[in-house]
Amino acid sequence: MKPIEVCASAERILILKTNFLGDVLNFLPVANFLRKASKAGICWLVTKPGYPVVAELADADEILLLDDAYLYNYGNLLDIASWLREKRFDLLVTSYQEECFLISLLALLSRTPERVGYNLLNRGWFFNIVVPKSDSERRVEINAQIIKTLGGAGHKDYLYVPKATVPGAERFAARLQAEFGVSPKDNLCVLHLYSPKPTKSFLMEYADELIARVKAELGMTPVLIGSEAEVRRFGEERKKLGLVNLAGQLSLLELYYLLKQAGLFIGIDSFPMQLTEFAGVKAVTLFGSTEIGENRVPFAGTVRAEVKCAPCWPRKTECDQGLACWRELKPELIIRAAKEL
Predict the structure, then answer these.
(1) pTM, full prediction
(2) Distance of alpha carbon 289 from alpha carbon 152, whole angstroms
């Protein structure tokens, strides 16, 4: 059968996609395509770091949740494969262009009749529907190769969040107004500045100036997001500057609604930054220690550090250069990029 016929005839589909929030988010278009191309029940196998994306954003009939340490242990491989065989999936889809041997071997051992993925070292052992290597660096475009292989159109047709609804967005807008005094008419600039990893975090000593410039020069209401205790405390302390503090108070779906309602996003290389592509909001993306390639957002303004030691993440998790890359990313550069949008 042709790949598109395989999708149409499948009754149970397994999406084997672990990893972190952004990796799972960028696989969402593939899942959206599979939902439209078949009447099958769709099951995701994920690990804890990526679970919230599937639970809160995706259209899933079943979620199989495994601990990272359990899944990525060859000693457990046969048990996991046996467990998957009992579930009798017709079609398995995965995306590991990095050639992850364990995941490819698990796909083979699951004995799923039809298996879609990038062929490990071109040996022809693991997948019987082979996705050609993508020249793209961006994750969402790499995954779009799967859609194309299965007979679908461009990934932009599937770049949406299934759990999002108009009534849901309206309820969130009402909550913003009732709890935080934010009107649907306000021109919002969403700020995501903090990471618990210092080498990936914007310098918070610049944040006061950035907040002031967003208000004065862009004429926008700055809204702070994030989940860590440090950024929540920062947000409370800066309310006097006119900052709306939503840190630690949003689900992933509410974050999507917020981005849809906003006029601009300014933030570090992160899950919220990647979600801007799905929400269709203009963005200024900040790259200090991280590589732009795979995480670049199309049509976003990019502010990057021009220092010799950057990018260094994840090769280096601690900085011995005084965070020189982030000291380069001053508010005036960020506001200039925002104005150019």
Answers:
(1) 0.93
(2) 36
